[in-house]
Design goal:
Blueprint: H1 3-23, H2 27-60, H3 70-90, H4 103-108, H5 121-136, H6 140-168, H7 170-178, H8 193-214, H9 221-224
Helix pairs in contact: 1-2, 1-6, 3-5, 3-8, 5-6, 6-7
């Protein structure tokens, strides 16, 4: 196996592994030793260091070394990334999964916006984005990194349910009873104008940047650019 690919696998394993370890088995001990603020600082530092390693290892690995899935793959990937960006954009407000002082009150409220689709819109946004890149079958480096990010998002969301149930108790139980882990994509038209517009703008902007900075036409720009 190419040395650059081995390093990329190691970098992604480190990124995913440190996230899981710090979020679950090591979390309690780290919080006791470092305090809540120190834990967040350490978590952020380790995460950014591992992500930087993924970035540089990805850049060093071969590009476009697989056969690709053709026009059908590009169409499927384009369609999948649109709801992914809507979920991601809508997940940034009113999300009880985020560590904020308002989390318990948000969990006791009725689901609004993208939370009608899933209680983990950020994670599923990343998961769908990862699936779209795997479908393209474009390069080994993309397959490895997309698989790792999808695994982190979707397994992480399942583990997060258990962690939040311990940390938030009945509030998270209420939230789980009112929401779904699986994305109910039929609810997308009911999420409201703000997530739809913001997600569509993010989808268009992100795929435009993909073309300008990666040199690969993606999204609607593949056919309009």
């Amino acid at each position: 196996m190419d040395g650059a690919i081995i390093e990329l696998v190691a970098a992604n394993a480190a990124f995913v592994g440190t996230h899981f370890a710090m979020s679950h088995p090591l979390r309690g001990a780290m919080v006791r030793r470092l305090g809540a603020g120190g834990f967040q600082a350490a978590y952020t530092l380790v995460s950014f260091a591992a992500l930087a390693w993924v970035y540089f290892a990805f850049k060093a690995a071969p590009d476009a070394d697989l056969g690709g899935s053709g026009e059908a793959g590009w169409i499927a990937a384009t369609l999948i990334t649109w709801p992914a960006m809507i979920l991601l954009a809508g997940s940034l407000a009113g999300n009880p999964a985020l560590p904020t002082p308002q989390a318990e009150a948000q969990a006791r409220a009725e689901p609004r916006g993208v939370f009608k689709v899933t209680r983990h819109p950020m994670m599923w946004g990343i998961g769908l984005w990862a699936a779209s890149h795997i479908l393209l079958f474009w390069s080994t480096r993309t397959m490895i990194t997309a698989f790792a990010m999808g695994l982190l998002a979707l397994v992480g969301s399942r583990l997060q349910d258990g962690k939040k149930a311990v940390l938030m108790g009945a509030a998270w139980g209420e939230w789980s009873a009112k929401t779904s882990w699986w994305p109910r994509l039929g609810q997308l038209p009911r999420v409201g104008a703000v997530p739809l517009v913001a997600g569509t703008a993010l989808w268009l902007a992100g795929t435009w940047v993909h073309l300008r900075h990666a040199g690969i036409p993606a999204g609607v720009w593949k056919w309009l650019g």
